[in-house]
Amino acid sequence: MKYEIKKLEEREVVKAVELFNAIVDELHADSPVTERSHYKETYPVEEVKERLSNKDNVYLVGKLGKEIVSFMFAWASDGVGNIYWLGVKPKYRKKGYARKLMDETIKQFTKKSCHEARVFSYPKEKGAHKLFKSFGFEEKSFIDKQFFGISIILMERKLAPVPIKKIAKKIVLTGEAGQGIKLMAHTLANILAKIGKEVSLNLIYDAAVRGGEITAELIYSDEKIDTPFFDKADVGLCLSRSKKALINAKEIIIDEAACNKECTGCDIICPVSDRIPFAKISTEEFHSPVFVNMIALGRLLSIIGIKIEKVDFETEFRSRFLEENTRALKYGYTYRD
Q1: Which of 215, 173, 216, 184 has its CA nearest to residue 298?
Q2: What is the spatial distance between Cα 304 and Cα 39, in angstroms, rounded to a whole number?
Q3: CB distance 163 to 79 below 8 Å
């Protein structure tokens, strides 16, 4: 039978996810069941079916007749093609199937105008590491297990010149003192730095000692950041009505409590607003207002296209609030109106 690579279809999702789960168990055989479950939870069957309608997905399967013998879970985000998971059934390995799957994936990235491809390789998986290198991927950094829970190597391959508009993304966060803007900004900066981005962060406080406003201006880029200041952000997040009455961003996420559903013509610049009841969610779902910032951070990560599958939350949050902060961030990341 001929080996055929095709886009994953809804009727094939169950079998593809079963193979994915088997690969997780194989790669993490020495890890606790809870850790393996964490990886598996990122690709639930129904959610994978929903993702098939997203133009950024690169979900492929390799088939021999009706049998799915290999799969690829990859995604195009912000000009970068990210390979998250791929696998081949044990009895079909060393037949060149993984190479053909990689070749088709790179072609899909190119069609989606990606200027770079990226993959996290496991050091112990020498065969896969050799495969990535044969496709022109270069080792960029070795990331110790203290960051992501397991030792991995970040590998990248340039596919095309970086478009100017893709060089950097600017983010502004604003809120009142006590809303966790500083923690949110530092957590975001840490996450971006650990996935290989150059990051610049400025914190701006007003004169008030208590109840004053705090603003965080963050830039992340694949290249060196020459100027850490900007006039207009790509994305702005506002947790309270700005006393400056001006948030200059192309897209703004606003806490519903800080802005009415109906536009009242205020001075906040929000051409494409995303009003979400962060405070209400925090109180009703987490029984405390202190998780507003993590819910908002989850939403922000989703909007800017940063995948949270590789984030080791244990290194980002203090153990005292690890479970609650992690759940709040994931809630915001997957939030649907």
Answers
A1: 184
A2: 22
A3: yes
Backbone angles phi, psi at 103, to 5 degrees: -60, -45
Instruction: List domains and CATH numbers for the chain.
Output: 3-158 (3.40.630.30), 167-333 (3.40.920.10)
Supply 147's token pair.
Answer: 């960051």
pLDDT in tens, 246-285: 678 888 888 877 765 555 555 555 544 467 888 888 888 8
Q: Nearest 5°: phi and psi at 308?
A: -95, 5
Q: What angle do CA 112, 237, 312 make, to 5 degrees?
A: 65
- Cα separations (Å) of 249 from 104, 170, 217, 228? 37, 9, 11, 16
* Cα–Cα distance, 286 to 291 (Å, whole number): 7
Residue among 81, 12, 102, 6 at smallest CA distance from 48 = 12
Q: How many residues does the chain have?
A: 337
Q: Rounded to an integer, what distance in angstroms lies between the CA atom of residue 20 and that of residue 73?
A: 9
Q: Contact at 8 Å (CB) between 213 and 176?
A: yes
Q: How far apart, in Å, are the Cα atoms of 307 and each of 78, 243, 289, 330, 334?
A: 11, 33, 25, 11, 11
User: In whole angstroms, what is the distance from residue 75 CA to residue 43 CA?
Assistant: 13
CA 184 to CA 218: how far, in whole Å? 11
Tracing tokens 């290999």 back to the chain, one arrives at 70
**Share of residues in the chain with pLDDT > 90 (%):** 40
Which of 122, 70, 121, 72 is CA-nearest to residue 96? 70
For 251, residues 6+ apart whose C-beta sits below 8 A from its C-beta are 234, 235, 236, 271, 272, 274, 303
Q: Which two tokens stand for residue 270?
A: 């929000």
- CA 256, distance to chain mean position in Å, is 24
Q: What is the pTM of this model?
A: 0.56
CA 175 to chain centre: 23
The two structure tokens encoding residue 187: 């957590």
Contact 105, 74 (CB under 8 A): yes
Element (H, E) at 186: helix 181-194
